Amino acid sequence: AERVHELNEEIGKLLAKVEQLGAEGNVEESQKVMDEVEKARAKKREAEEVYRNSMPASSFQQQKLRVCEVCSAYLGLHDNDRRLADHFGGKLHLGFIEIREKLEELKRVVAEKQEKRNQERLKRREEREREEREKLR
C-alpha cells in the first residue's frame, strides 16, 4: 500500500510537470516526462496487483485513504492519475509548500537578527566592563 501511494504521488507530480512544460511550450521535454509517467503507471499497476493479492477481498473493497504529507488532504490509494495531478498542482497543496518555504525563510531571518542583537549586547557589555576597569585605575 505504501508503494502504491508513493507511485501515485510520483505520477501526480510528473503530470503536473508535464502540464507546466506544455504550457511553457517545451513539447520535447514534456514528451520525455510523459514517458516517465507511463513507466511509473506500469510500476503502479504491478504494485497494486501485489497489494490486491496480499489482502483479503472484503478489506480491499473498502476505500483506502492516505494523508498528503504537505497539505494533510486525504488521497485515495487508488485515485486516478488525473485526480492526483490536479491535487499536486492545486492551489491548496502549492500554497502549503509556499507557506512552509516562507516560514523557513522567516526563521532564518529571525535567527540572524537575534545573533546580531546578541553580538551588539556582548560588545556593549565589553565596553562597559572596559570603562569600569579604566575608572578603577
Provide structural commentary.
With 137 residues, the chain is mainly alpha-helical. It contains 5 helices and 2 strands. A two-stranded antiparallel sheet has the order 1-2. Strand 1 and strand 2 form a beta hairpin. Helix 1 packs antiparallel against helix 2 and helix 1 packs across helix 4. The longest helix has 46 residues. The protein is elongated and about 85 Å long. The termini are far apart. The model has no long low-confidence stretch (mean pLDDT 84). Belongs to the Luc7 family. This is RNA-binding protein Luc7-like 2. It comes from Saguinus oedipus (Cotton-top tamarin).
What is the element layout, followed by pairings?
Elements: H1 2-24, H2 27-54, H3 57-60, E1 65-67, E2 74-76, H4 81-88, H5 91-136
Antiparallel strand pairs: 1-2
Approximately how much helix is present in the residues? over 70%
**Ends distance:** 78 Å
- Shape descriptor reads elongated
Stretches with pLDDT under 50, minimum 5 residues: none
Number of strands: 2
> How big a fraction of the residues is strand?
under 5%
Main sheet makeup: 2 strands, antiparallel
Q: H/E element string?
A: HHHEEHH
Computed over alpha carbons, the radius of gyration is 26 Å
Mean pLDDT: 84
- Protein structure class: mainly alpha
Give the oligomeric state of the chains in this entry, treating copies of one chain as homo and distinct chains as hetero.
single chain
Arrangement of strands in the largest sheet: 1-2
Number of helices: 5
InterPro entries: Luc7-rel
Keywords: Coiled coil, mRNA processing, mRNA splicing
Pfam family, one: LUC7
Protein name: RNA-binding protein Luc7-like 2
